Amino acid sequence: MNKSSKIPKAARLILNWICKEEYIEEIIGDLHEYSSEIKGKPAWKRKVFFWFQVFNFIKPWSIKNLKINQRINQTAMFKNFIISALRSIKRQKAFSFINIIGLAVGISVSLMLFLFIQNEIQYDKFHENREDIFRVVSRYTTTKGNTNSSAITFGSVVPEMVKAIPEIQYATRIYNFGNVEISLNQTKFKDQTMYFSDHDFFEIFSFKPLYSQQISETAFGNNGVVVSAILAKTLFGDSSPIGEVIKILEQDYTIVSVVDVPKKSHLKFDLIVSLNGFPDLHDWAYKSGLDFHSYGMYADGVDHSTVDTKICELYNDQMDQRFADFTSASDNYVQPFNDIYLNSQGIANNIKVGSRQTMYVLTGINILILLIAIINYVNLTTAQYEKRIKEIGVRKVIGANRNSLIVQFLGESTVITLLAFAIALGITQFLIEPFGKIMQIEAEVTYWSQPLVILGMVCAVILIGIISGIYPALFISKFKPSKILKKDFSSLKRGTIGSKVLVTLQFVIAIVLVINFTFIHKQISYIKNIDLGFSKDQILVVNNLSTKIRSSYETVEAEILNSPNVLELTSSQSALGRGSSGQTAHLASESPNTAQPIGELRTGHNFIKTYGLEITEGRDFSKNLLTDKDAFLINESGKKLLFAGEESPVGKSIVVAGRKGQVIGVVKDFNYTNLKRQISPVVISLGSPYRLELSLKINTSNIQETIAHVESSLKKVDPDYEIGYYFLDDYFNNMFEADERNASLISYASILTILISLVGLVALIGHGLTKRMKEVAIRKVLGAKIKQILWGLIKEYYWIIIISNILAIPLALVAMNKWLPTFAYRIDPADYWMLFVKISCLSLLLALVIILIQVYKRSRMNPVEILGNE
Amino acid sequence: MEKEYIGELEELILLLIVTLKDDAYGLSIRRALKEQANRTMTIGSVHGTLNRLEKKGLVTSCYSDATEVRGGRSKRIFTITASGKKALERSRDIKVNLWMQIPELAIK
């Protein structure tokens, strides 16, 4: 030991490990001598020189041969590997096809889901300042104890915080005006989204200007408008629209810039005009309620949390003053920009948000499908290798050692997974668009331009290949050739436990998915058919009404009612079910301090009748009583809120948002907001200035004719009018779009997993039976009946399905209980116990059929063929 | 062996083996290369070339006694074989022959 002390131990170990034994003596000797040769140099140089020499010994000539390469004609051997792999694929065409395609579909589905997820994650990533941007979110607790969060704030937050907090570099308000109609040279363009904002908007956000680099503050403030590239293209084609004048809401605006609004942006607009042009902006901002989105940007290098605290204090103070009547606490907060798109659940009035729930579902399904596909592949491959056991025996006899067999198997499975991966890429390329359309998620294949992602995927696939090959490789290569060739598979039996566990896992996943899918389906159809308290069918809503039409409503009404297809007609601020305006109300006899938040629906006459609402006490508004214009109808929840006990509110006076009026009737509770929420108190008032939408109860026959009639009636009043309409039931059905999307995603996934699991079961049985053919044959020889043999074999596999069911049902229940509480009206899984039974029975039945087919086929074999070789 | 050509480095090392006689082993050859031909090579590449020469049958090797300076390891002493000598001669002849064909003026 002492003698070799000059050479570091590590160097000796490395060389011993890497270099051929016959050279070690010489190499180490020379290195010793060398190290004494360089003694005179400084220590660090000695080290560098020495190690340089050491690593220079790692050369092709010096490296130990891998054992498998020794004395074997390598090319011929690999050629033979490929040939035998191809032969085994050919021999079992259907089997290999299922195996490869199964894996390819699994990879492809998870690839597509990955792209969907990536698409959602990439939202808002184009803003250069995104790390420094924030949004102020309102959060307050009402005196009733409800906590509300909203993305809109007072208009006074932004100007005040800029004034008071110098660490805020820029801040802007956005007022989302919604859809407007614009006109250019008498041509009208409907449904353009318009924002009102401040000039800082363009300093904070990185919407790229197409023509001019700078958006002048004065030009923008002075009736300027910034349009989106898409709108500019519609209006002016490819020529520059800068300086052109367009008419918005009867007023002229000059286009000062065109900006590109990327698809993946939560702020989506066609037009932005300056808030400066708003009359009474100051009053609106400083006196009114929540109306503006407030965004800001921290100055460089300031501590975000201290600034946040200052903003919250400032806003809390404002809110405590202005909302003193009905809030008990204000707890506003600052949200980082990066959180807005995906992390805004529970915040009302968002401009556009993604669904975190959908993301979780997608990720979960993604992992499950990939897992199930890999499990299946491993199972099938294992089963396949056992059919090739003779080949392995012969190879061993000829002289293949274990290492070369392991390399053969791993290589084979890697090549097959790569093949499956190539197919998966193809499938993805073709299906991503149609699949995305079904799922209503925009997604595109983005990885071609991302070499790192491609590399990662290839590595992952090779890993899958190795994982799927490692079990058969290590397991099968272990056997003694004498046993293999004698078909003595007794030592193989142990291996099936692993496969059984895997198949059980597959069934658990499949059953969980099926149960979840059925429940989501049940829940959605339950909520769609729930009694809303009013009829949403046969209701046609006409919107987009012009000022002219609104002011001559009586004429319009008479015109439209001319048609026998129109049964009822009413006007309102918005159609029923689309929310109400938030107000406060209190009894006229009590002080304003007792005011409670309440919704108000501003409607025209005939509203109750058109929507089929039921009046339980008092009466509807009457056209003949002029005093009714100050009267209120109240719903049962509202009655409970304002009036104690059983006393009838009819004839009592209440004050809603400062307007005093009599309650003339009570309406049975109906659902006027999101069906995910409980019914809340509401008053109905007559509000002729709010005739923004017409609701028509129509005959379901001749719908097109009716619409044409409505349009022509309206055109008589306003020749420029263009009709805009929708059916109310469509609107309600669309409310559950996200949930339905999840349901259909899960349904596809469950079909896929069921198929894969069944294939896995087939493989497992095939794999297990091969090993037991001799046993079955001997039993037959000894006189066992097919029925007895069948029973014995079925028993062995049936408990897999039973255990899967036992495991899956609680898991599915846990998942359901996470999702169901998002609905106010929900089904109770306990009421649907029959469903669990049905799904379990179905899975048991399916499995039974599969097992029977497999087992029966084999138990009918002729024992002579099996035993003949002995 | 007829078609076996030797490379420039191989030739150089073969010549050094002949000059170093009984002391021709990896490190001494490397040292001689530096001194006589002004070429610095890693020990690894010298060993590589020596192994190649041995595989071609141009040199043989045997282990000498262990020495203290080598940490108790023995040297692998190389000696040139007959075919090694032949290869050297052939290479020299070819070059001399070529040199002869060049008119003296051209090279000056």
Describe the structure.
Chain A is 51% helix and 17% strand. With 870 residues, chain A is an alpha+beta fold. Chain A folds into 5 domains: 3-64; 70-123 and 354-486, no CATH class; 133-339, no CATH class; 488-531 and 731-870, no CATH class; 539-730, no CATH class. In chain A, the strands form 3 sheets. Chain A has a 6-stranded mixed beta barrel with strand order 4-5-9-6-8-7. In chain A, helix 4 (74-91) packs across helix 5 and helix 12 (356-387) runs parallel beside helix 15. The longest helix of chain A has 45 residues, at 737-781. The model of chain A is unreliable at 1-5 (pLDDT under 50). In chain B, strands 1-2 form a two-stranded antiparallel ribbon. The longest helix of chain B has 20 residues, at 82-101. The chains are: A alpha+beta (870), B alpha+beta (108). The A-B interface holds A 3-7, 23, 25-34, 36-37, 52-53, 56-59, 61-62 and B 25-27, 42-45, 47-48, 51-52, 63, 68-76.
Notable traits:
heterodimer; A: 870 residues; alpha+beta; 5 domains; six-stranded mixed β-barrel; 27 helices; 23 strands; 51% helix; globular; disordered N terminus; B: 108 residues; Arc Repressor Mutant, subunit A; two-stranded antiparallel ribbon; 2 strands
Structural class of chain A: alpha+beta
Total separate domains of chain A: 5
* DSSP summary: helix tally of chain A: 27
- CATH architecture type of chain B: Orthogonal Bundle
- How far is the first residue's CA from the last residue's CA of chain B? 36 Å
Outline of chain B: elongated
Average residue pLDDT of chain A: 81
How much helical structure, as a percent, in the residues of chain A? 40-55%
**What count of domains describes the coordinates of chain B?**
1
